[in-house]
Amino acid sequence: MQGEGDRESLEKTIARPRSFIEKTIKNVTVKIAETLVNLSWITPNRITVVSAAIGGPFAAWLIYSGYGSIAVAAILLSGLLDDLDGDLARVRGVSSPEGAILDSVLDRYVDVFLISALILLDPTRHLIPGLLALLGTTMVPYIRARTEAEGKNSIATIGDRTTRFILLIVGLLSGQILPLLIILAIISNLAAFHRLFFALKPEKSASV
């Protein structure tokens, strides 16, 4: 998919890799995109859908079924495809608002599937932190999109999708699901309030 910056601002700006992990992934996906550029049957939107299917319902089923390690592999593959679709679109020069919208919407479905699966592992203990984590992961991109829809700039913050996926992978591999949900709930909601606080600050008018 197009990456969080592309998806949530509907490709108004190109997301720049900010961390070593993001740079490494981007180097790989750009090379793959250049290899696939002439294969017309492989389209960015098809990659988007496959990525969401693997990282959403399939990974969620693996988590619920107790196959945490395999779920991690599915999530990693989904994350790779998550960047590849946008890179392929840019290499072909076919980036579009429609593709960015599809990407962003399916990402939200992936978040719901994964966190719901974590909640269902132990509904009694996981329900409240899981719902809070789901609320935060939904509000972080929503606040950014709403801010940019009003013509204002948003800001980078903690709790972006890459950070959440890393936490998810660590939690699944360690089997510490309750701490994972608590950390996700805290980080994602702090990120949401951070972006909201910045968005509500009036922009200084240019002096005449």
Automatic annotation (TrEMBL):
PROSITE patterns: CDP_ALCOHOL_P_TRANSF. Pfam families: CDP-OH_P_transf (PF01066). Keywords: Membrane, Transferase, Transmembrane, Transmembrane helix. The keyword RNA-binding does not apply. GO terms for cellular component: membrane. GO terms for biological process: phospholipid biosynthetic process. Belongs to the CDP-alcohol phosphatidyltransferase class-I family. This is CDP-alcohol phosphatidyltransferase family protein.
